[in-house]
Amino acid sequence: MSVNDLGPEWIALRLVSVVLGLVVVILGVRVAVTRRFPTAWVRIARLTASQRSQPVRRGGFSALLGTGLLVQQAPFLIPVPHAVGQALFAVALLLVVTAAGWFALLRH
């Protein structure tokens, strides 16, 4: 589980997924905290009025999913022992399940 074990295309793909994860976390936290969607997001996603009324629900879901992606990619980019890598994968799965629960249970 180290960077040296893979070819450069896999490393590039993992770095892109880390950058995308960071963007999703930042946008999700911004939406959840400010309780407003970015106008470009509303236009591109074509959110309905009922969907636009749930920024905390959608922002928290996005932030948790992005965090799960970041935690899942950490053992592949940073050399860690195998047991730590497995623990980080379990935490990533827990974050994804939490995101699904957040989205399903939070209704505002």
Automatic annotation (TrEMBL):
Top-level taxonomic group: Bacteria
Keywords: Membrane, Transmembrane, Transmembrane helix
Transmembrane segments: 12-33, 60-78, 84-106
Protein name, UniProt field: Uncharacterized protein
Organism name: Micromonospora globispora
Classification lineage: Bacteria, Bacillati, Actinomycetota, Actinomycetes, Micromonosporales
